[in-house]
Amino acid sequence: MVGCPSRSEPGHGHTHEDHAHGHDAEAEDVATLALTRWTDRNELFVEFPHPVANKPVRYHAHVTHLEGFKAAVQGAFRVRYVREGKVAAEAAISGVARPGIFTPEGMAPGPGTYTVEMVYENEGITDAFDCGPVTISDQAPAAEEEAPSSAITFLKESQWKIPFGTAWAEERLMARELELPATVESASTGQVTVSTTVAGRFFQHAAVALAEGQWVTRGTTLGHVVPNVTGEDYGKLRQTLEELRTEQAQLHREIERVTPLVSEGLRPPRDLIDLKNRAELQAVRVTETQARLERVVAPSQQGGVPVKAGMDGIISQVLVRNGDAVDVGTPLMRLSGTDRLWLRARFFPPPSASYEGARPAAVRLPDGQRVELDENVASLVSPLPTIDPATRIATWIIAVQPPRGSKAAATTGIPPLRTGSNVVALLQVGEPQRALAVPRGAVVEINARPYVFVQTGGESFEKRLVTLGRRDGDWVQVTSGIAAGERVVTRGGFDIHLNALMGTVESHRH
């Protein structure tokens, strides 16, 4: 059990009501006991004055659920003094005084040395905390002067208000991990180029958004190619149409002139029939030329040669704009299948880099989410990267078999990867080695230097400058600054740092 003087309470900055930490006004010169214990489910931080034989003791216990790091809001709490397997004294309470805080009170046992056990019970689950031995006499020991300390105080009430968490620094097997910038692209066997079979102008289908990343199904009409009139452009079409209309008007006038002459027998009927035949043929020419001109000026989806998707896939590249003129065989767009993707990483390798035993471990998406990859989902196309002899740029390709659709992603945990997006490919290299490690969230960068906040007590923390080693998934190796078995802050470390700088009780980021 860790002892601290009762007059340290004001230094803690607590503002609890009604004997905030169990210190009675008449016990100002009596030593106070404070301890912190953990189980797999809960954390206990308790303070109480050093027990005096056969005198009442009030306890101030903070119980925190480690999952979500939330204050306990219900349950029962008891304190037991045990000697030779028998309970000599007990204090118990049901329900919290305030969220996270239990305040049981009871008589201390007679003089002697006892083992203190504290128990938290909630919904049929019991957590027992072994709080070690305590020696009780007829008079409590006097409070000792506090030695100067670099510890930072951060109250439970503040911890409960922000995203917070702690974990053990422990030794674990770790492999070296490489982080390589990569681009998502379709595998070479899963790409199709859509081209045109006629010359003309390409117009996108109004119902389909031809954007990179858009999913299309086989047979979907992507647009139309309106064929050109051979040897003519817009100006020539306009001139031809005007000439045809002029000739058509002349024929109509001639028909109007000849009609009465035929009726009077001055001209043979064959002349009028020939003129009407020529007028009908001229009307067809005008209508066809007008349609061609309209397709160039204001094209319709109808009448052109349809361009359709030849496979299910994602539009990875659009090569022409709406209304562009195209020749026979002009590539219009590229489709990428999603059955197999490549993560193409390009990087400058260190001269002495070793890649023996490399294997894909994970991919970090643009939003920062890390997605684990196993051998059934991802593999390296080549065991080693290829290096361009001229530029010395290395290229390494990871083949990924991603699921398509939210249901498949939910089953495997791998979200759909969009071709063209930039990600970070994570590769493990070499055999794993045992090393002291902490979760990545425990490392806080302050002034470009890595720090870890170590929990020395329920509300006491130390800022430690650390030296980092290899990274493996959500863990990072620490080669100096902390020891195995120390409790480190995994979330909320920067809030503790700000609290120390501001000298306030509460963190400003709630």
Keywords:
alpha+beta, about 500 residues, disordered C terminus, 10-stranded antiparallel sheet, elongated
Please summarize what this structure is.
By secondary structure, the chain is of the alpha+beta class.
Number of helices: 6
Strand content: 35-45%
**Rg to the nearest angstrom?**
41 Å
Approximately how much helix is present in the residues? 10-25%
* Euclidean distance between termini CA atoms: 32 Å
What average pLDDT do the residues reach?
Answer: 83
Strand elements, count: 36
Largest sheet: 10 strands, antiparallel
Parts with pLDDT < 50 across at least 5 consecutive residues: 1-13, 15-27, 404-413, 504-510
Task: Tell me what the structure shows.
Helix 3 runs antiparallel to helix 4. The radius of gyration is 41 Å and the shape is elongated. Helix content is 16%, strand content 43%. It has six helices and 36 strands. With 510 residues, it is α+β, with helices and mostly antiparallel strands. The two termini are 32 Å apart. Strands 15, 24, 25, 26, 27, 28, 29, 30, 34 and 35 form a ten-stranded antiparallel β-sheet that branches. Strands 1, 2, 3, 5, 6 and 9 form a six-stranded antiparallel β-sheet that branches. Mean pLDDT is 83; it is low at 1-13, 15-27, 404-413 and 504-510.
What's the layout of helices and strands?
Blueprint: E1 2-5, H1 9-12, E2 31-38, E3 42-49, E4 56-58, E5 60-65, E6 70-71, E7 76-83, E8 86-94, E9 101-102, E10 105-107, E11 112-122, E12 125-136, E13 152-153, H2 156-159, E14 165-168, E15 170-186, E16 191-195, E17 200-204, E18 215-216, E19 221-227, H3 234-263, H4 269-297, E20 305-308, E21 313-318, E22 325-326, E23 331-336, E24 341-347, E25 359-364, E26 370-372, E27 378-380, E28 386-387, E29 394-400, H5 406-412, E30 422-439, E31 443-446, E32 449-457, E33 460-465, E34 467-472, E35 475-480, E36 487-491, H6 493-502
Helix pairs in contact: 3-4
